[in-house]
C-alpha cells in the first residue's frame, strides 16, 4: 500500500477531538455507584490526572436525567424573585440526586479548570415545559431556573471554563417532545439570555456557544437541524452501536462487522452541511452500547478495537470535529473505573491518541491489489470490506513536524502481521495488547509495560525507536506508528520553512507483508500484489496501474525540472 507525499487532507478535527462526559445518575446503582456528576469524587488524584492527560478536552455534563435537573443557586437575582428561588430550593430538597447546588457547580468548574478542560452543559428543557399534572411539552419553556444558573456562571471565578450550553437531551426521542416550533423559540430565548448575561466587556470574550440538538439518529437530527438552523452554533447528536442489555452485543463485539467506516457518518455530515452556515458537528455522547454499556465488553480490551477504528473513521468524516466518549467515570463504558479509579483500556487508547495523533486525517491510502478498499480512506486486509481483521489509517503526527503516522488494528486472535515501511529513516512504534495477550483483559500492556495510573501520576509513554522499518503486529493488538525521515506535504506546519526534497521516480509506499504471505510482482507491470498459499490474490486493476504509472512520470518530470 502507499501513502503519497502529496496526500490530501480528508478532514481536520479540533485538538479536543477526544473528549468525554459526566452524567446524571441515581446513587448506588450497580453500574454507576457514586459516579454521578452530583456525587463523583472530583478531588481524586487519579480522576484529575486522567482528565488532564486528555487535555485539551471538552467535558459534556448531560445525560438522560439532565432534563429533570434543578439548579439551586440559593439567592435571587435581578430577574428572579425570592419566591422563585425558594421554589427551586424546595424542589432540590425533594430530589437531591438531581439538584445542582451553587457549591457543587463551582466544584465541577474547578475540576474542569484543573484538568485543562472546557464544560458543555445540557440545560433542562422538558421539566420546564410540563403543566401542573406533570405532562411534558404542554407550555412554553420556563427559562427562570436556567437564567439563574447562567447568571451565576457568568460571574463565577471559573466562568471562562464553560464553552457552551445545550438545551435538552434527546428531547424528541420516543416522542417526549413533539412541538418543534416551541423548541426553536426556546433556543432563541437561550440565545437572548446568553447575549444579555455576557454583555459586559469584562466577560464578553468568554460568551458561551450554543450547541444542539443533542438528538439521536439521522432522521430526528435532520428534522431538528432543519428547524433550528442558525439557532445553534455547533450541531451535536448521540451515537451508540448497540444495547448494553442485548445478548447479541457480546457476539457483535467479537465480529469484524462492528468496525466503523467513514461512510457511516456521512449521512449526518450531509445534513449539517446542508442546514448550517458554518458546518461543524460533534458526537456529544457516544459509546459502543447504551444502557450503561456491558460489563466485560465495553470495559475490556475487546472494545478498544471498535473504539480505535471508530475514532479513525469519524476523524475522516467532515465536518465531524469532536467525539465525547460516554463517560469519564460511571457505567460499564467508563474510561476510569468508578470502583477502583483505575484506567480502563479505552482510556489508554484515548491517551496515546491525544499524545501522538495530529488533527489532520490524510489519504488516500492506495492499494493496487485491493480495488475494494473502503473508499481509499482505510486500508483493510485480507478478507474484504466488513470482514477484514487488519485496518490501517493515516494521519499527520502530532507536533511541529511533517511526519505521517499510521494507526493500525489487528483484530485477529491467531494471526500476526508484518509490515515493512519502505520509506523514511526511522520509525517509532507503540504496540498495545491486552494483559496476557487477551482481548478480554481490562488491563493494557505497551511493549511489555503494564499501563497504570499510580497516585495521580500518569506513566511515561515511551515508543520503540528503530532503524529497522519493520512493524510486527501480534494477534489482537493495536499500534501507533510514526514514520521519520519522510515528509508529507499536508503535514508541514504553515509557518515552517520549506524544505525541498528531490522526488523519486518510485511511489513512496508502505509495503504489507502478511504472515504466510509474500510480496511479489506479476512480471508484467512491476506493480506488487499479494500472493499466498490460500491464493487470496488481489491483482491491480488496469485503471490503478495507469494512475500509478502517471504519478511516476509526473514525479520524474518534476525531478528533471528541479535538477535542470
Explain what the structure shows.
- With 564 residues, the protein is of the alpha/beta class.
- The chain contains eleven helices and 25 strands.
- Strands 1, 12, 13, 14, 15, 17, 18, 19, 20 and 22 form a ten-stranded antiparallel beta sheet that branches. An eight-stranded parallel beta barrel has the order 2-3-6-7-8-9-10-11, surrounded by six helices. It has a three-stranded antiparallel beta sheet with strand order 21-16-23, with no helix packed on it.
- Helix 5 (180-197) links the parallel strand 7 and strand 8 (209-216).
- Helix 1 (45-53) packs across helix 3 (102-115), helix 6 (218-228) packs parallel to helix 8 (263-275) and helix 9 (302-314) runs parallel beside helix 10 (345-356).
- The longest helix is centred in the last third of the chain and has 22 residues, at 542-563.
- It is globular and about 75 Å long.
Give a quick set of tags describing it.
26% strand, 564 residues, 10-stranded antiparallel β-sheet, disordered C terminus, single chain, alpha/beta, 8-stranded parallel beta barrel, globular
Helix content: 25-40%
- How far the N terminus sits from the C terminus, by CA atoms, comes to 32 Å
Name the overall outline. globular
Helical stretch tally: 11
Strand and helix map with partners:
Layout: E1 2-12, E2 18-23, H1 45-53, E3 57-62, E4 70-72, H2 82-94, E5 99-101, H3 102-115, E6 117-123, H4 144-155, E7 162-167, H5 180-197, E8 209-216, H6 218-228, E9 234-240, H7 248-253, H8 263-275, E10 281-287, H9 302-314, E11 320-325, H10 345-356, E12 357-366, E13 379-381, E14 390-397, E15 404-410, E16 417-421, E17 426-434, E18 444-446, E19 449-450, E20 464-466, E21 470-473, E22 477-484, E23 510-514, E24 517-521, E25 528-532, H11 542-563
Parallel strand pairs: 2-3, 2-11, 3-6, 4-5, 6-7, 7-8, 8-9, 9-10, 10-11
Antiparallel strand pairs: 1-12, 12-14, 13-14, 14-15, 15-22, 16-21, 16-23, 17-18, 17-20, 17-22, 18-19, 24-25
Amino acid at each position: 500500500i502507499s501513502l503519497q507525499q502529496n496526500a490530501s487532507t480528508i478532514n481536520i478535527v479540533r485538538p479536543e477531538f477526544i473528549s468525554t462526559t459526566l452524567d446524571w445518575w441515581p446513587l448506588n446503582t450497580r453500574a454507576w455507584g457514586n459516579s454521578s456528576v452530583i456525587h463523583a469524587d472530583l478531588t481524586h488524584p487519579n480522576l484529575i490526572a486522567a482528565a488532564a492527560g486528555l487535555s485539551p478536552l471538552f467535558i459534556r455534563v448531560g445525560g438522560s436525567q439532565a432534563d429533570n435537573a434543578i439548579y439551586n443557586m440559593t439567592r435571587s437575582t435581578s430577574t428572579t424573585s425570592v419566591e422563585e428561588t425558594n421554589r427551586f430550593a424546595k424542589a432540590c430538597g425533594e430530589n437531591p440526586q438531581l439538584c445542582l447546588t451553587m457549591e457543587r457547580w463551582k466544584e465541577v468548574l474547578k475540576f474542569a479548570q484543573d484538568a485543562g478542560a472546557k464544560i458543555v452543559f445540557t440545560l433542562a428543557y422538558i421539566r420546564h415545559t410540563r403543566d401542573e399534572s406533570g405532562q411534558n411539552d404542554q407550555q412554553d419553556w420556563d427559562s427562570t431556573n436556567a437564567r439563574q444558573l447562567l447568571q451565576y456562571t457568568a460571574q463565577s471565578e471559573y466562568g471562562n471554563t464553560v464553552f457552551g450550553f445545550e438545551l435538552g437531551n434527546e428531547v424528541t426521542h420516543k416522542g417526549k417532545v413533539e412541538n418543534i416550533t416551541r423548541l426553536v423559540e426556546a433556543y432563541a430565548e437561550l440565545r437572548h439570555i446568553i447575549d444579555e448575561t455576557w454583555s459586559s466587556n469584562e466577560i464578553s470574550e468568554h460568551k458561551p456557544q450554543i450547541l444542539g440538538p443533542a438528538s439521536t439518529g439521522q432522521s430526528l437530527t435532520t428534522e431538528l437541524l432543519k428547524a433550528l438552523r442558525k439557532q445553534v452554533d455547533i450541531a451535536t447528536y448521540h451515537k451508540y452501536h448497540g444495547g448494553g442489555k442485548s445478548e447479541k452485543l457480546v457476539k457483535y463485539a467479537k465480529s469484524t462487522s462492528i468496525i466503523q467506516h467513514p461512510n457511516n457518518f456521512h449521512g449526518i455530515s450531509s445534513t449539517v452541511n446542508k442546514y448550517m452556515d458554518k458546518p461543524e458537528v460533534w458526537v456529544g455522547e457516544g459509546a459502543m452500547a447504551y444502557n450503561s454499556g456491558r460489563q466485560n465488553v465495553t470495559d475490556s480490551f475487546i472494545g478498544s478495537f471498535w473504539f480505535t477504528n471508530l475514532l479513525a473513521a469519524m476523524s475522516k468524516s467532515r465536518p465531524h470535529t469532536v467525539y465525547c466518549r460516554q463517560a469519564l467515570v460511571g457505567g460499564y463504558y467508563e474510561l476510569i473505573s468508578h470502583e477502583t479509579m483505575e484506567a480502563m483500556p479505552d482510556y489508554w487508547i484515548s491517551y496515546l491518541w491525544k499524545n501522538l495523533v495530529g488533527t489532520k486525517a490524510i489519504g488516500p491510502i492506495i492499494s493496487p491489489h485491493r480495488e475494494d478498499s473502503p473508499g481509499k480512506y482505510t486500508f483493510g486486509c485480507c478478507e474484504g470490506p466488513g470482514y477484514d481483521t487488519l485496518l490501517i489509517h493515516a494521519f499527520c503526527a502530532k507536533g511541529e513536524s511533517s511526519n505521517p503516522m499510521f494507526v493500525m488494528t489487528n483484530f485477529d486472535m491467531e494471526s500476526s502481521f508484518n509490515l515493512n515501511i519502505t520509506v523514511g529513516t526511522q520509525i517509532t512504534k507503540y504496540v498495545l495488547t491486552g494483559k496476557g495477550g487477551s482481548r478480554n483483559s481490562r488491563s493494557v500492556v505497551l511493549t511489555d509495560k503494564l499501563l497504570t495510573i499510580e497516585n495521580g501520576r500518569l506513566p511515561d509513554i515511551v515508543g520503540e525507536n528503530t532503524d529497522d522499518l519493520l512493524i510486527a503486529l501480534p494477534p489482537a493488538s493495536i499500534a501507533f506508528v510514526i514514520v521519520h525521515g519522510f515528509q508529507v506535504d499536508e503535514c508541514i506546519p504553515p509557518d515552517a520553512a520549506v524544505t525541498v526534497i528531490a522526488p523519486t521516480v518510485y511511489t513512496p509506499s508502505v509495503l504489507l507483508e502478511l504472515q504466510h504471505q509474500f510480496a511479489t510482482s506479476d512480471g508484467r507491470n512491476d506493480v506488487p500484489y499479494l500472493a499466498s498459499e490460500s491464493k487470496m490474490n488481489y491483482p491491480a486493476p488496469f485503471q490503478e496501474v495507469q494512475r500509478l504509472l502517471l504519478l511516476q512520470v509526473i514525479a520524474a518530470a518534476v525531478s528533471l525540472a528541479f535538477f535542470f
